Amino acid sequence: MTLSPVPAEWSAHRAMWVGWPSHAELWEDNLEPAQAEVEALVRALVGPGRERVRLMVGKSEAVESARARLDGVDGIEIVPGLFGDIWLRDTGPIFAAGSRRASAFRFNGWGGKYELEHDDTVADQIAQASGAALDRHDFILEGGALDHDGAGTILTTRQCLLNPNRNTGWTDVVAEGALTDALDARKVLWLGDGLLNDHTDGHVDNLARFVAPGVVACPVAWGRNDPNADVYAAVAQALTAMTDAEDQPIRLLRLPSPGLVLDEDERPIPASHMNFLIANGAVIVPTYGDEAAARLACEGLATVFPEREIIALPSTAILTGGGSFHCISQQEPA
Question: In whole angstroms, what is the distance from residue 236 CA to residue 225 CA?
Answer without folding.
Answer: 19
